[in-house]
Amino acid sequence: MLPSMPSPDRERFLAEPRVGVLGVTDSRGGDRAPLIVPVWYGYEPGGDVVVQMGRETIKARLLRAAGRFSLCVQDEGRPYRYVSVEGPVTAIEETVDPALREALARRYLDPEEASAYLVATADQLKDDIVFRMRPRLWRSADFSAFAADFAEAGAGQDGS
């Protein structure tokens, strides 16, 4: 069994600025796997996951059709950790609040880069859309305990 994170830890982990991998059912027909794409997202413990994207993108069309999505975030450093959430789309905002767009840019970029990005991509405000998702199912793993056990086992060996 994977060592899962307690609820407050997994919510804090999800709230940290990480690139998320969004997954949504691909309903375009044929034998397609789910669409899986990296995204910037926002999250505050106890709230909704918020993602912004172009309103005419494949992912936006699939999100509208599916009405739900998954998001997975990870820490690639040792010891490995991840949180995955899935749930229903709770709101679709056809107009992006400039404050939300700025908060997302500042979450992922340093201050100078964020300012330049916001100026360079100002037209996105009219072309983008926001999806909100309420996490209903959580999956998580934190391998810190395993790492500590391995470290202790290694420390106990004398090399002979």
Automatic annotation (TrEMBL):
Listed GO CC annotations: cytosol
Gene3D superfamilies: Electron Transport, Fmn-binding Protein, Chain A (2.30.110.10)
Ribosomal protein in keyword set: no
Superkingdom as given in the UniProt entry: Bacteria
Signal peptide annotation: none
GO molecular function, one term: oxidoreductase activity, acting on the CH-CH group of donors
Full protein name: Pyridoxamine 5'-phosphate oxidase
Keywords from the named record: Oxidoreductase
